[in-house]
UniProtKB/TrEMBL annotation:
Pfam families tied to this protein: HisG
Subcellular location: Cytoplasm
Protein name: ATP phosphoribosyltransferase
Xref: PROSITE patterns: ATP_P_PHORIBOSYLTR
Catalytic class of the enzyme: transferase
Source superkingdom: Bacteria
Family annotation (Gene3D superfamilies): Periplasmic binding protein-like II
Length: 230
């Protein structure tokens, strides 16, 4: 990471992008027009700010790009930050967007999956020394159950976790919940909230130390913008 290299800001390309762009623009950053073109195949974009580029990557990869120094700044949910627990980044600012929760869910006893008291791993609601859970968050899930003295075997999925109980992968899932409508539509119920989730501004620690004037100035700018939006 050379001091004269452009600063790189990593943004998640999925659902959070719509919520984060007003903050980016309020901070005075306008990406080149191609950024808004869904057919554009480039992933790195110049902005109106000389020496500041934006990359558009998957939400789960923002933390990795920033932790490895490929990007200096980024926006990521604390679900992603908890899952990876990178030492090389820090999250100085809650942007108060992307509100949801990371929860444990299981078949709703009153619904058509209510008969599912066991899963392929043999666990029951009353015999849970070892259980199986389908999730995109195996590290958080294992740590959560370990705190309760339970060993969780995780089936790693990248989406559509809510299908797992009906199709026999696992009785339980750990996934993000916002309105609760996805759980309901799949005959599941939320049984425990593991973490409340919002999106954070994240910063590569080394970049913050070696380029305090530029990286620190952006952190301050986003702090002002977030305070004003609140
Ligand atoms: N239902 C939701 N409501 C609010 N925020 C959410 C919700 N689901 C996810 N988020 C937040 O958005 C981030 C990205 O969501 P998700 O992992 O579902 O990716 P995506 O936007 O579907 O894109 P992709 O899976 O293609 O990377 C999550 O890490 C979380 O912080
Ligand atoms: O409680 P709700 O308001 O229904 O939201 C929860 C859903 O939102 C997220 O999925 P998303 O829509 O991002 O799709 P994905 O499975 O492709 O990540 C999450 O994984 C849940 O499936």
């Amino acid at each position: 990471m050379q001091p004269d290299e452009p600063l790189v800001l990593a943004l998640p390309k999925g659902r959070i992008l719509k919520e984060v762009m007003p903050l980016i623009r309020a901070a005075g950053i306008d990406p080149e027009p191609a950024f808004d073109d869904d057919d554009e195949r480039r992933l790195r974009f110049a902005t109106n700010v000389p020496g500041l580029h934006i990359i558009r990557v998957r939400a789960f990869d923002v933390a990795t790009f920033v932790a490895f120094g490929g990007a200096h700044l980024g926006v990521a949910g604390n679900d992603v930050l908890m899952e990876f627990a990178y030492d090389d980044l820090y999250a100085p600012l809650d942007l108060d967007i992307g509100h949801c929760r990371l929860s444990l869910a299981e078949p709703d006893p009153a619904g058509p999956l209510g008969h599912m008291v066991t899963d392929a791993a043999g666990d029951t609601p009353h015999n849970v020394g070892h259980i199986r859970v389908a999730t995109k968050y195996p590290n958080i899930t294992r740590a959560h159950f370990a705190r309760h003295g339970i060993q969780a075997e995780c089936v790693k999925l990248s989406g559509a976790m809510e299908l797992a109980p009906a199709l026999g992968l696992s009785r339980r899932i750990v996934d993000l919940v916002s309105s609760g409508s996805t759980l309901k539509a799949n005959h599941l119920r939320e049984v425990a909230v593991i973490a409340h989730v919002t999106s954070r501004l994240i910063v590569n620690r080394a970049a913050f130390k070696t380029r305090p004037n530029t990286v620190g100035a952006w952190v301050n700018r986003f702090r002002e913008v977030a305070a004003h939006a609140a």
